Amino acid sequence: MAFLKTIKEVGHYFYEIYDGAASLVRGMKVTGSYFVRPSSIVTQQYPENRATLKMFDSFKGELMLIHDENNKHSCNVCNTCARKCPNGSIEIIYKKVEGADGRSKKILDKYIHHLETCSFCGLCVPSCDELALKFDQKFELAVFDRSKLTKVLNKPGSSSKAMKE
Amino acid sequence: MYDFTALIGSITNLLNETFSPFWAGLIMMVSLGVALLLFYAVLGLYLVYAERKICARMQNRMGPNRVGPLGIFQTIADLIKLLLKELIYIKNADNFLFNIAPFIVIVASIMAIGSIPFAKGLQAIDLNIGVLYILAISSMGVIGILLAGWASNSKYSVIGAMRSGAQVISYELSVGLALLCIITYAGSMQFSEIIASQQDGWWLFKGHIPAFIAFVIYLISGTAETNRGPFDLAEAESELTAGFHTEYSGIKFAFFFLAEYMNMFIIAAIATTMFLGGWLPFHLFQWHGFNRVMDFIPPVFWFFGKTAFIIYVMMWFKWTFPRLRIDQLLALEWKYLLPINLMNLILIAFLTLMQWHF
Amino acid sequence: MEETLLDIDMQEKEEYIINMGPQHPSTHGVLRFETCLQGEKVKYLIPHCGYIHRGIEKMCEHLTYPQIIHLTDRMDYLSAHINNEAVALCIENAMQVEVSDRVKYIRTIFAELTRIASHQLWWCAFGMDLGALTTFFYGLRDREKILDIFEETTGSRLTQSFNTPGGLMSDIHPNFQKRIKEFITYFRKKLPEYDQLLTGNIIFRERTKGIGMMTKEMAIDYGVTGPSGRGSGFHCDIRKIAPYSAYPFIKFNEITLTEGDTYSRYLVRIAEMWESLNILEQLVDNIPQGSTMLELKVIKAPKGEFYQRVETARGELGVYIVSDGGPSPARIKFRTPNFSNLFVINKLAAGHKIADLVAISGSLDLVIPDIDR
Description:
heterotrimer; A: about 160 residues; alpha+beta; Alpha-Beta Plaits; 2 domains; three-stranded antiparallel β-sheet; two-stranded antiparallel sheet; 3 helices; 7 strands; C: about 375 residues; Cytochrome-c3 Hydrogenase, chain B; 16 helices; about 10% strand
């Protein structure tokens, strides 16, 4: 019986070697099969593919104030977006002007978005009742100077749609 | 055909005629040294490049492709960067040993190249104990690694160096025994004679199964000796950050890096010479037409082709397998490779005695 | 955690102290293991956390409930959606509103996708820890498909902030279901490759079997939940114990193994990926119609204390809100899974080699910002 046991153990020793080697070969088959198939390369060449690289429509890039062709935006300085923003990234500077009916009215002077503190949570865009805001598809947001991240979103010379002049 | 003996001989004669024997010898040595150094640097850089490309392909990437077409100058750019980098002075390091360690590592691998036969006659020195010489020289590298680990005065480095010491010393045995199998077959330790004995067939094929076993063991333990692949415990990035060369920077780090790749080349070159017929072309039975065509390919191509194949296999290992633990590494050597190797050697001795090999 | 090993007179004790971290490749972030070695063996270790403490709980006290959501993304960034869901559910419970079935289904689909993505990243990193460098790229390659699904609907890849108290930020993209079905067939083909490359590998098996034994009692004592706890036979799947969202509507198995070593923790995660694919398959075609957002005038929790727990990719996440009736919580506490999972490492790693410590900490799947908050 002892003899049989020894035979069994020796067999087990060699089986272990075989089993180990077979498992190694299986692993090498995976990497080897990718090596011979260049079509399996999934990486893209980034600066080269800039022209074709398109973000999804819902991509949350830079915040922007929508301007129409007459350079008009629809912000009516209700300040909801600034209140919704958890980081205080939105700052709205307004002027008070005398309206036609004699009541003072707020008009937008500067819509400032502090991109450096924005965490892209997306609370501002749906909060706007006038649908004045949207996220751009721009994703190359890195700059060398931090001050460049403070963006004024209303274009120079633009005015609000609500203002009738 | 493609015999370099005559060419080298005529150059030697020319030198001997024009200069006194002392100057002739000096010029020979210097030019050989420069040639080997250049070869070393260029080959090392391109092995790094090849590894980066190969692993990229295995990992569904493209690898370096910015510097030059297909990125072939990438490693040269890296070398320039490493040359220009600051050599960081370690405060409590043993400065002498710290500085000398990379040189020991690199000198060991340069010296080993000297006796590798690239083609008939294209060999710096054909020692009659070539195999022993290479084994002796290439195991000197571990001294550099141990010194580097010790002199850095860093805890990670010491652990890495100690692991490396234990590893190289153990696997030296297997490398030696695996090569001894072929020495037994060929009956010589001289590389030129070992190659000559394979004129009618490579030892891998005509040495029956024992030669194949010896080849596999040689590949495994050779990979282990270069501290690569699944046996890179001395560096063990995820455990020891970078192991023995944690504290090195700039060109000193580059020396370690180059030496690793050149050691891989040396291991592959020896495997080629011992098992795959060195620079001999591939011959198939008595197909004279086929054999004639094979003969037309220069031996240098044969040598580098076979070496490249073995290097590829070693890289394949590295990019597929997880790393072993130190006790498993030693168990693999002492419990599996060494007993199998010894049995194998006895078998080969028997086969040689009975003249049963082809 | 005030005591440090460095205070002890080392000359006397002949101990070899190594600081693994805060900058170390295998701690996966700014975590520090003060490790006492004897040769290669780990005698004991003290984990030090707090290097990435941002005070999220305190910050939450100054934010309104919808604003809290985006901070929870940054705790366990690999299961961002599930963190969001936990807070949203807790607030919904407090307000005693019930979201539509559509929201529940979509939340669950997102949660399971998040779980798969998280396990994929864990698989890559675990392979890297053990020195198999190619796993990293295969895992990330497949994870990219999930991130694309996320991005198409939510606009973000990692920190989606897709949940909000009362529903979702937006409806799903028309391609959503199609892409998920594509992913399921794609990933079913790729998962066996994971097994061939790593699970079956003899070196891998030797490295992980019998390493870092955690008994069921230990898991319960330390509060180790998630796949790490289930690897020890601890039935702790919140999806089964206290089903939330769409989990009551579907059939799935809780994966538990009893060995309790690194290998079984590995197997649990691999099996969970398969199981998550099954869950996705059940849900993806049956998303009911309905609104994705409740019309809530004001989001205020009534005065009181509220607790909600969910199963993230790493274990049980508990959200505990103490409200004084205002628009923001008086006190909020997150019971994060990683914090509990971390401290068992001292017990697991003692006596093993330093290479095993790396394997064990990899098998616990730690995300450091979740520990520190």
